Amino acid sequence: MSEPIKVGIVGGSGYAGGELMRLLLGHPKAEIAWVTSRGDKDLEAVHRNLMGTGLRFVREEDAGPCDVAFLCMPSRESMTRAPAYLEAGTKVVDIGSDFRLKDQGLFERVYGGSHACWGLVGESPYGVTELHREAIAGARLVANPGCFAYTTILTLAPLVKAGLVDLDRIVVNGLTGTSGAGAEPKVSSSHSEIANSAFPYNVVDHRHTYEIEQELSGVAVGKVQVHFTPIFCPFPRGILSVCSGFSTRSVSRDEVLATYREFYAGEPFIDVVGLPKDPAVSWEYLPYPSVAHLAGSNYVQLGVDVDPDRGRIVAIGAMDNLGKGAASSAIQNMNCMLGYSEELGIAGRGLHP
Amino acid sequence: MSEPIKVGIVGGSGYAGGELMRLLLGHPKAEIAWVTSRGDKDLEAVHRNLMGTGLRFVREEDAGPCDVAFLCMPSRESMTRAPAYLEAGTKVVDIGSDFRLKDQGLFERVYGGSHACWGLVGESPYGVTELHREAIAGARLVANPGCFAYTTILTLAPLVKAGLVDLDRIVVNGLTGTSGAGAEPKVSSSHSEIANSAFPYNVVDHRHTYEIEQELSGVAVGKVQVHFTPIFCPFPRGILSVCSGFSTRSVSRDEVLATYREFYAGEPFIDVVGLPKDPAVSWEYLPYPSVAHLAGSNYVQLGVDVDPDRGRIVAIGAMDNLGKGAASSAIQNMNCMLGYSEELGIAGRGLHP
Amino acid sequence: MSEPIKVGIVGGSGYAGGELMRLLLGHPKAEIAWVTSRGDKDLEAVHRNLMGTGLRFVREEDAGPCDVAFLCMPSRESMTRAPAYLEAGTKVVDIGSDFRLKDQGLFERVYGGSHACWGLVGESPYGVTELHREAIAGARLVANPGCFAYTTILTLAPLVKAGLVDLDRIVVNGLTGTSGAGAEPKVSSSHSEIANSAFPYNVVDHRHTYEIEQELSGVAVGKVQVHFTPIFCPFPRGILSVCSGFSTRSVSRDEVLATYREFYAGEPFIDVVGLPKDPAVSWEYLPYPSVAHLAGSNYVQLGVDVDPDRGRIVAIGAMDNLGKGAASSAIQNMNCMLGYSEELGIAGRGLHP
Amino acid sequence: MSEPIKVGIVGGSGYAGGELMRLLLGHPKAEIAWVTSRGDKDLEAVHRNLMGTGLRFVREEDAGPCDVAFLCMPSRESMTRAPAYLEAGTKVVDIGSDFRLKDQGLFERVYGGSHACWGLVGESPYGVTELHREAIAGARLVANPGCFAYTTILTLAPLVKAGLVDLDRIVVNGLTGTSGAGAEPKVSSSHSEIANSAFPYNVVDHRHTYEIEQELSGVAVGKVQVHFTPIFCPFPRGILSVCSGFSTRSVSRDEVLATYREFYAGEPFIDVVGLPKDPAVSWEYLPYPSVAHLAGSNYVQLGVDVDPDRGRIVAIGAMDNLGKGAASSAIQNMNCMLGYSEELGIAGRGLHP
Description:
homotetramer; Dihydrodipicolinate Reductase, domain 2
């Protein structure tokens, strides 16, 4: 039996870093070499679920070498770290946003300034494993997708590839759980404020829009324009992406479901929800994805419906924003980069309830 | 000082009936004459907030005469009751759905069968007070709107009237709180199931769609088609309607806000949220409506934004599904029918937090 | 008709201040003269439920005279303000903690230092209206109780007065909603952290313990010692106090209920929950108080049970921590001080759901 | 490598059955042979987290042989099944309540009637692995503890063993999440009803009381009497047991913590939370257990505090009611019965957030 690979986590005090630790503790071929944090908090007090594991934060300057580094950093920070890790022969999965957009002008406009190592952007595949598996397998740097982007790309890819909807008028409403706002306390994500509420934010120009358009345009071979509005909702984990497209031709729900099943055939983490629409039991057997059952997992649920009278196709996707939307997909990409089975360490199912 | 008018509530064991009681207890010119329920439950055990008020359920056959009756009944049931009340000289506000749709063929298709008293439909104004104030003032029967419909109509009316968006491609995602599923326990609205979740339902043909299209087509003087998907969310009360329209011409957020302020000038219950979009404090001062602060009230918050690059206008509306979306708007309509100030008994502000 | 009295609110950016405004807007004999805040936030952005009311924050130095001032300030701050208001002839209700404890040594130990105007403490009744009505009616300064204290005092007063339990071994577990931690964002009250959680805090020496012991010792004519532990719970509003006492003699639930009904006979805001214990329907008709139905109200629900085999009496009380536990009881005390009906402006029932 | 053992689950439509499946899917030495359900629901529609696993419900009469059977059944039903499984050589873990109480008269009184196979009760250890490890290792039938009982026994065992508190006046308040009420929809566990609420139930004679007293009396070598009240709270998963005992002698928090650490030394699933009580950061670093971080896991957090002035020791325990409180502890017991490492398949950490 071979030695486990050594994994480093840069930026471990946030929710994505915590989820990485939780999952890597159970990964059969990886071990956590170190976890960095700039603050002076105690790891077990921040991530109380990890109490008793013995994990501790270190300063990045005290971190030793590792085989794979996960970068969990704010925008415009991972690009200052990635080059050194790559130079040392470490593979890197960036959970931040610095290597996602492949158009330099767009990057500079969206993220406010020039890139510190633009040359690396071209070699780092956008980490939707389902779309870029081969490139990821050969990469030393992967740009893990934004959570809204990942959900929406998976939800719409079969639809735009099949040309079933107008490509420039796709409306996406994305519901996110409160962990999407990060671990830092804020008024709007205080329990008292949000527990009985919901509100839209960044209504017309959320940064993930550009990732979605970039990737779907690649799938569709044609320019895709999405009209995205995120909505902040009172559940801790999860993303629900509700996508409305205007149909280019008459099509039934079953046909669309078949298109999805074919597109994702063999994908280990994607379930197409095809339960029948039976009004009599619709509140017992929901025929569409729901958020809760994916918490803590790398699984995705996709569903569709069709309004033949008004000419609309609705595609719905759900995932855990911290799991498939961040930490577990990063591990899936690591597995892919290392030639392991993609499911290693992340095959656990979500909680119910 | 004149005698208070006597009010009857038909169907008081549900949430709308309970909210009517709560509000009418504080109405200066009305008193609750009776509340009916077909079950054998105790009113104070069902509506524990009313403990100590002395209110009791009676059988409808034991209910005496009253000046105004509120009907809180399932679809296809209020039409079996309204005629007798009207004949007895009682004014009626129907919180159910039997008198909302004004196209007979459409009614029969949407609600599955013929109408018991179609002649009354024509004389009963659709109860969006803001649009039909005069007709309501002269009516003896008012069809109170569905909660999604009320929110969406108010949210979109200024936009479609001003012709700012394409009328046939308006996409609406409506988030509802769990009380929207009624007081009867169901698997999907159990706390364990929904507290960490959200899911869409009736994705392409929700009945409220037809009310929305009917009313907006009236405002727009042109046929409006909305593409509506409701989403079930883990807060007890509230509706958030997020509406995306494709703009017909270039327009700024400020112009659209001005259009809204003008359209609703003088309306006592509508607040246009025009807080500036300042990213630095956006999580402290949300520039859009949010759900929580309207709970228990008759107030509505409306907001807008514009994406000039992609040609989209987003209009957002929020209200309490049981307040303005049912009970308090029914009282507003009663006030209007009786020539009272519309604010009587329903001027209370929502809770924070 | 007489002029409304002018009310000032010192410290209006917190939850208690917001609730005071919400309620005073509907008070028939009072009007809000001014509301102060030290920060530079916009009142309508902080208390979004008050959008459209026209209320604005002012600096305390710009506030004019008023008839009654409510002080909503941190510990050790209202004692620096109260004297000036009293000197100007303004009546004061202190929602803070500076005038509650009547034992100087105890005050200094619990609140860390000497008192700025100890002479006023003696003349300010402890504001449980149900116990000190006459003193409050004649006072110019009232010390409004802490929320845990108010709930627990009302819950236990009949029991200790009747001598039904050992006075030195009463165990109290108090559940509080998240608004109890205040409006300032904190890690532990972030939605992501607390929505699926509950935790005890200040487990053995919470400051409210001393108020409870002071007041119950007065009622019991005998020293009462309570063993109090607060628990932070994921609902925004509410207090549930579960009190266990060891019975001094054999007694039935009905006898204890009768004791409570007699003790609180005629009290407008106290409901003794006496629903029968019927296991068959116990999940439909809870025979004990619950938190939710009191939100936004000044009402209190009390209930009891008896374990004859083990010799324990359990008394349970619930109220809204921001309503009866802070703002609405402060208004009740103001009403009492001014000779108004105590129910003025605060008779509204809680929400359901 | 040996064949995996075959596991059967009798009663798989509830939450405990679902959690067993979720965990057993990842168990390296067990495979799910079959899962029974009496209803006609589809497994993947009931447990949507298991969508795509291929698991299906079967009728019990169609279930084949298995090595270990988990019984997830209502009171008084597993005793009708256990004998046949044992006769067939199958080992049984009963997650129900039929084999927990070892006093026949008490069983008959608490569970209403005689036992179908009392002879088996004596040979089935009470499944707190931490107390009965050796007996469980040699058993063919194990009585898995009730969730409140398990939490409370672990929380109090070191305290009563050390004789630090009066044994007959221990007051326990247990908070349970809503999954504790089961998967069947009920009014009181509807989201609208409980999301903003909390209420006590079975206030003085909850059945788990007897398990707690039985087990703690065994540990203490002296009769222990607990005064237990459960409280229903708005989080889906988790138990928090807050236990107050009157101290028999002066003792410090550190001494009590040391007693706990010694008692549970080497236990793989028990973490004694010994963070310092620092008021300055107490809302960031809670020095006591909290519920959320244990969800989905087999871990337990225990904490203590001491009130020297009033002579009270408080012990606090938290676990996941469906994990350590039901399914994962059942697997721990299975591992123990089969001679496996106890951690097999259940070492995963809880979610944060």
